[in-house]
Amino acid sequence: MLKSLSMKFASRAALAGVLGAAALALPAIHGAATIPAAQAQTSSADLDRAVAALRAISTMRADFTQTDRAGNTARGTMTLKRPGKIRFDYGKNADLLVVSNGKSLYMVDYEVRQVERWPIKNSPLGALLDPNRDVKKYGELIPTGSPDVLSIRVKDPKRPEFGVMNLIFVRNSRAPGGLELTHWVALDAQNHRTTVRLTNHRYGMSVAESTFKFDDPRRSSRRPR
Fold first, then answer.
1. Count of alpha carbons within 13 Å of 85, Cβ hemisphere only?
2. So what's the pLDDT on residue 132?
3. Pairing state of beta strands 139-142 and 114-119?
4. CA–CA dist 5, 19 (Å, integer)
5. Backbone phi, then psi, for 172, in 5-degree steps?
6. What is the helix (H) or strand (E) element at residue 104, kind and residue range?
7. pTM (predicted TM-score)
8. What does the pLDDT read at residue 152?
């Protein structure tokens, strides 16, 4: 069972990354205006490619490994469905579940029978899930030194309590749009770092809507199936 308090804390710190991973409707975003024009054009093109790759995903499953700053690790399966639905399943015997139904993001703790909810529309990072909202001011391309690796940093300078996340993409012709989201790093306001790595990506499978529902421990003693 996932009983580690540090891992539960790390999951809270990684929620920005969860939202970022579900950013299937991400509009075009740009980097700082002070970079050279040629580099700005390249950055804009790379950002457009990353956006197109995310939008090209209809459904996806991947295995994930979540590691906190102390090196504690949890594993499970991530399921994603456009628009804005995602589930981090830590296993049938786990005490923790993170799930978004497209409107709200939930952290469900079956050990203490608590449910925390974040309305996606009220979060600046959650705006990444909404194609009708302009989030250009939240994102920038970070140089990686490799033409095959893209890093997008997302933050809201007016809301530091939401932390910072870096989404990392690797060029892969087999992935939708030619880019594959391999991992992200979330840094909360207290500088607690959480890394989530994805492996064994699968695309285009049928995913039932029930995947993004959960048994509410406040009304039931049952755990997620």
1. 17
2. 45
3. unpaired
4. 22
5. -150, 110
6. strand 104-109
7. 0.78
8. 84
